[in-house]
Amino acid sequence: MIVRIGIMALRICVLLALILGILLWLNVISGGIVMIHMLLGLLAMISLWLLAFGIATAPQGRNMGLAIGAFIIGLLLPIVGLGQLSWLSLGSAHIVIQIIHLLLGLGAIGIGEAIAGRYRRSNKLA
Questions:
Q1: Domain total for the chain?
Q2: What parts of the sequence cross the membrane (predicted)?
Q3: Which domain holds residue 57?
């Protein structure tokens, strides 16, 4: 149950954060929406860590590699995201930071889906 809730929350949060992030990136919407984007990112991180906990403590199919990877990506996502606020003075290199943040967000959903898939397969076999 923890994995089912975690993956659905992760999917919704990452999708909405991705949409808002792209709109912010393209300057389609104002910066006032940044707090909502950050809240969605925080919820995505918590969901990812919930999934990591679920796979790390699963009776069958325990996978510590995926759990550690999910924890690290979940930790890096807000560090890079919040870091953008202070790293804005880097000028043209800021695009690199934005791309890294985008890739971490996509990595979060990817590792979350991998955890959910591994968990489902291990429970079918049990």
A1: 1
A2: 7-26, 32-52, 64-83, 95-116
A3: 2-125
